[in-house]
Amino acid sequence: MNTKSLLTSILLLCACFGPNLLAQKKILVDVAHGQKFYSNPADKISTELVPTQRLEYMTGELTKNAAAHNASISYIKTAITAESLSKTDLLFIHVPSLKYSADECTIIKQYLERGGSLFIVIEEDYWATLDQVNVNDILSPFGIKFSTDSPDKTVGGHAPEGKITKKKYAIPFHGARLVEGGKPFAFSNKSEPSSFAVYTEVKGGGKIIAMGEAMASLYMTSWQDVNNYECAPFMQDVIGWLLKK
Fold first, then answer.
1. What secondary structure does DSSP assign to 215-226, as a single string?
2. Mind listing the pLDDT tens digit of every residue in the chain (245 residues)?
3. Do the domain assignments include residue 154?
4. Is 94 exposed, middle or buried, given 0-12, 13-18 or 19+ CB atoms closer than 10 A?
5. Are 99 and 132 in contact (CB under 8 A)?
6. Entry pTM
7. Residue 65 domain-assigned?
8. Are 104 and 80 in contact, with CB atoms under 8 Å apart?
9. Which residue range is the domain that position 116 belongs to?
10. Which residues contact 67 (CB under 8 A, 6 or more apart)?
11. Which DSSP letter does residue 23 get?
């Protein structure tokens, strides 16, 4: 094959397969269910809890983590539908305070069974009780359940090197909700540590990570005189695992 023919073949291959190989992945952030911290930064919502500058910082960090895995961020302010999830690789649910409808729970379940991924964080009762938000209706078919507030009041946590994280990270643990089921991958720094994050892989290719502590996914690198939390690299590994197929 001469040089011209070789070049033509390469261009044809790029035309045929390039878009599939380089297609950008999609992360959909739910902001329709009374989320306590996250909102669409384009709406410039500023609250005492999350001032505009803070919102821009944490959504910027999330955007950078996504970009590292060739993914983009979008926000949904209406009910979750099959159509909204049809082109979504990862659904991001962070500390909601309102219930999901029966239809939404079914749609998310079907999405996971078809290979979609879910990152979900539910904090202590202070932020929302399990009577207020029915996230276990989403998770229980997959053997995961959020439970009561953790009795472990240790300051500081970690995620060891393993299937989810590429190395050991220091991450926040300052009060959490217990998560039952799945495989634990993040722990308090107590001598007999408790777990506050689990993962599972769904038949059909779906993946779930459920966390009972929100600070790592809020990119809070300092709290209660601890200043070395590695939230961004931890979240980058978490997102990478959820997006990898």
1. TGGGT---BTTB
2. 554 444 444 334 344 444 444 689 999 999 999 999 999 999 999 999 999 999 999 999 999 999 999 999 999 999 999 999 999 999 999 999 999 999 999 999 999 999 999 999 999 999 999 999 999 999 999 999 999 999 999 999 999 999 999 999 999 999 999 999 999 999 999 988 889 999 999 999 999 999 999 999 999 999 988 889 999 999 999 999 999 98
3. yes
4. buried
5. yes
6. 0.90
7. yes
8. yes
9. 25-243
10. none
11. P
In a domain, 211, yes or no: yes
* Maximum C-alpha span of the chain: 71
Name residue 121's amino acid: V
CATH of the domain at 129: 3.40.50.880
E strands of 14-115, at which residues?
A: 25-30, 71-76, 90-94
Cβ–Cβ under 8 Å, residues 233 and 80: no
- The domain total for the chain is 1
Q: What's the CA gap between 200 and 22, in Å, rounded?
A: 27
The CA distance from 174 to 211, in Å, is 13
Assigned token pair, 210: 């459920």
Q: Is residue 120 part of a domain?
A: yes
